[in-house]
Design brief:
two-stranded antiparallel sheet; ABC_BtuC-like; 2 strands; 79% helix; globular; ABC_TroCD; single chain; 288 residues; ABC transporter involved in vitamin B12 uptake, BtuC
Length: 288
């Protein structure tokens, strides 16, 4: 295994850890499709920065995309809390509107711009070791720095807000009554998801980001009964999928992000069948 292969696995593993930790809360809150919505809602921000600066891949592009991602999650959360529509309907109302706005912006103001949809959707994880920045006199993959900082920030956020996050996830009304600011904590979680999703798209693409947010957490939910254990197992599932998916992709000479996503799905399928208490076989034995 070459150093580049190790770097790819580490980048994917770090990203899967941060996504799985936040994804555990999303799965329990019934908001698992939020990262998918963010992946569409950021388009107006990218177009806006291109119109203002002419740049498509700069720090301001990330800022613009993050702003519209945050607008998507907070807008859908406001609609959900209004009681007019359900949670899934609120999300389905907000992100198509923002995505459509981005499409209109491209057709009107940026029709001549080249947007690499393959990179945005499927990611360029394979080439992540080649895109480097100078750090303390050494060339370090940019994606490694971004995913490392994101993982540390996510873990620090969850550890620092562990008690209110637990309360707001399982019983938001109690969290508010107990003075734990459940509503504010929920919004902080959504903003963190939007920010992480935006910075992750650059490294692995939308499909793998959505996979890392949802599939490891769903797998861990089948295998555990406590929130803390669920988050640890979810992170472990992400690393296993990263290592196994990379190995299969190299041996078959195929897409690394796609194979990692498939490996995550295989782990979920195994847990769905073999989980000791919630698996299909366990429930079948209990009935018979």
């Amino acid at each position: 295994m070459s150093p580049d292969d190790v770097m790819i696995i580490v980048i994917a593993g770090l990203l899967s850890t941060s996504c799985a930790v936040l994804g555990g809360f999303l799965v329990l809150r019934g908001q698992a499709l939020l990262p998918d919505a963010v992946s569409h809602a950021v388009l107006p921000g990218i177009v806006l920065i291109f119109v203002l600066s002419g740049e498509r891949a700069s720090l301001w592009t990330v800022v613009g995309a993050t702003a519209f991602g945050v607008l998507c999650v907070l807008g859908s959360d406001w609609l959900r809390r209004s009681g007019v529509v359900e949670s899934d309907a609120a999300l389905a109302l907000v992100f198509p509107a923002l995505f459509s706005l981005g499409i209109l912006g491209i057709s009107r103001f940026a029709s001549g711009a080249h947007i690499d949809l393959d990179s945005a959707i499927y990611g360029d994880l394979t080439f992540a070791p080649l895109r480097t920045i100078s750090l303390f006199g050494a060339d370090v993959p940019r994606s490694l720095v971004i995913t490392g900082v994101a993982t540390v920030a996510v873990v620090a956020l969850v550890v620092g807000l562990w008690r209110p996050l637990q309360a707001a996830t399982f019983d938001p009304a109690f969290a508010e009554l107990a003075g734990l600011r459940g509503r504010l904590i929920g919004q902080v979680l959504l903003v963190a998801v939007a920010g992480l999703a935006v910075v992750a798209f650059d490294s692995v693409g939308a499909i793998l980001v959505i996979t890392f947010f949802v599939v490891p957490a769903s797998t861990a939910r089948l295998l555990t009964a406590r929130l803390g254990s669920m988050l640890v197992v979810a992170a472990g599932c992400g690393w296993v999928a990263s290592v196994a998916g990379h190995g299969v992709a190299v041996s078959l000479d195929t897409s690394i992000p796609g194979t990692i996503g498939l490996a995550s799905g295989v782990l979920f399928a195994l847990a769905l069948v073999l989980a000791p208490r919630r698996g299909v076989l366990a429930r079948w034995r209990a009935r018979t």
